[in-house]
Amino acid sequence: MKISDMRRDYESSGLRRSDLHADPLVQFETWFEEAHAAGVADVNALSLASVGADGQPGLRTVLLKDVSDGGFVFYTNYGSSKGLSLQARPQATMLFHWLELNRQVIVEGQVVKVSEAESAAYFSSRPRGSQLSAWASQQSAGIASREALEQQLAEVSARFGDGPIPLPPFWGGFRLMPRRIEFWQGRPNRLHDRLAYQLTDGHWQISRLQP
Ligand SMILES: Cc1cc2nc3c(=O)[nH]c(=O)nc-3n(C[C@H](O)[C@H](O)[C@H](O)COP(=O)(O)O)c2cc1C
């Protein structure tokens, strides 16, 4: 199969300005629920872009865990590559691609750390194995071997025993506060629909973009 021959047409009834809710977060939740109902796997998985100290864009998958207080929340290690980038340069972009619905949503804005209480509440809801792995991993740092990583996990497991596992001080959430959100709906013949919300003087303005 030649990669250049790979293509499929995107069937959909399209996206009109009149379909959109005035609040892009409500619109996001509508599309999110539709993607979930359509059986999209890992519907809350998104690509998260950050900016490195040298200007190099950093990109990785994370899981959306909440849409609240006007923003999009995910959790990570604050000392990871992304964690350090986001604290030094708090601009970020999120991309959701819901292939089965021929839809893409791009969210741009500034990130802020969520409160420790909010991170602790989420951390306590995680399975115990995930809590231990958060403690055991110095995310993004190198390590000599898989065995060394498992040794770190064994050490934290022994330390906590059967007791409760507190929120690691180096772990928690970020909330991306959107300034721009674009909804993309694939259409036949690549004549797609793009409608973007832009926050201007505290109000969301909607405009249509060429595909
Ligand atoms: C489906 C999927 C979900 C993931 N969810 C998260 C997440 O919620 N938080 C996180 O820190 N890393 C998550 N990861 C791992 C990240 O993609 C990445 O490898 C890790 O966070 C280190 O990134 P960094 O070195 O750029 O900081 C996920 C990976 C995949 C494939």
How many domain units?
Answer: 1
Helicity level, as a percent range?
A: 25-40%
Question: What would you call the structural class?
Answer: alpha+beta
CATH-level-2 architecture: Roll
Mean pLDDT score: 97
Distance between the termini: 27 Å
Strand count, sense and barrel status of the largest sheet are:
9 strands, antiparallel
Q: Total number of β-strand segments?
A: 9
Q: Which hetero compounds are present in the coordinates? A: flavin mononucleotide
CATH class: Mainly Beta
Shape: globular
The arrangement of helices and strands along the chain is: HEEEEHEEHHHEEE
Which topology does CATH recognise? Pnp Oxidase, Chain A
How would you explain this protein's 3D organization?
This protein has 211 residues and is of the alpha+beta class. The chain has one domain (3-117, 171-209): Electron Transport, Fmn-binding Protein, Chain A (Pnp Oxidase, Chain A, Roll). Helix content is 27%, strand content 35%. The chain is built from 5 helices and 9 strands, in the order H-E-E-E-E-H-E-E-H-H-H-E-E-E. The chain has helices at residues 24-37, 81-88, 116-125, 128-136, 146-160; strands at 45-51, 57-63, 66-68, 71-77, 91-98, 103-113, 171-185, 193-200, 203-209. Strands 1, 2, 3, 4, 5, 6, 7, 8 and 9 form a 9-stranded antiparallel β-sheet that branches. A hairpin with a 5-residue loop joins strand 1 (45-51) and strand 2. It binds flavin mononucleotide. Flavin mononucleotide binds at residues 42, 45, 58, 60-63, 74-77, 80-82, 139-140.
